[in-house]
Amino acid sequence: MGYWDLEEGKDCVEKTWITTKLGTALGLVGSAYHIIAFQPDSALQAVQRATTGTVTMASLGAIFGMATCLSAQARDAPDDPLNYFIGGCASGVFLGARSHSAMTGASACLGLGTLAMFTKVGRMEGWKIQSSPPKL
């Protein structure tokens, strides 16, 4: 069962588990590219980089999944795109705390929140990413 198959505002643990797994996978891929692009001096440093990137992305996924689901329950508005903005913003604030930068947190909050909100709006309205040449 996928993320979009579950009802909004219900089964928060399952939704959080799915977003955590997705974040972990993205973190592993991103860490692999980072290690290839910027060669570490030792194997220990490579493991540290991989762990840091993977855990950070897994945490972002978990925070997003839980904040989105809990805000849907607390606000009693399960299909509201604002829930996704709240989840994205919470993830952005975590990035700011992780980097010890309020500016990073504020920017990531707005960026991730807006991206998540538009993802939900697009999903609700049936937006499609252009997969074929445009019709003229």
Structural topology:
Elements: H1 12-37, H2 43-75, H3 81-99, H4 102-125
Short description:
With 136 residues, the protein is an all-alpha fold. 75% of the residues lie in helices and 0% in strands. The protein has one domain.
Characterise this structure.
InterPro entries: NDUFA11 (IPR039205). This is NADH dehydrogenase [ubiquinone] 1 alpha subcomplex subunit 11. It is found in: Mitochondrion inner membrane. Belongs to the complex I NDUFA11 subunit family. Its main location: mitochondrion. This protein is mostly helical and 136 residues long. It has one domain (9-123). 75% of the residues lie in helices and 0% in strands. Helix 1 runs antiparallel to helix 2 and helix 3 (81-99) packs antiparallel against helix 4. The longest helix has 33 residues, at 43-75. The mean pLDDT is 94.
Task: Describe the largest sheet.
Answer: none
Global Rg:
17 Å
Task: Tell me, rounded to a whole number, the average pLDDT.
Answer: 94
**Strand pairing plus helix content: what structural class?**
mainly alpha
> How do the helices and strands follow one another from N- to C-terminus?
HHHH
Q: Would you report the number of β strands?
A: 0
Number of domains: 1
Count of helix runs: 4
Cα distance, first to last residue? 38 Å
Strand content: under 5%
What is the general shape?
globular
Model regions low in confidence, pLDDT < 50 over at least 5 residues: none
The helicity comes to over 70%
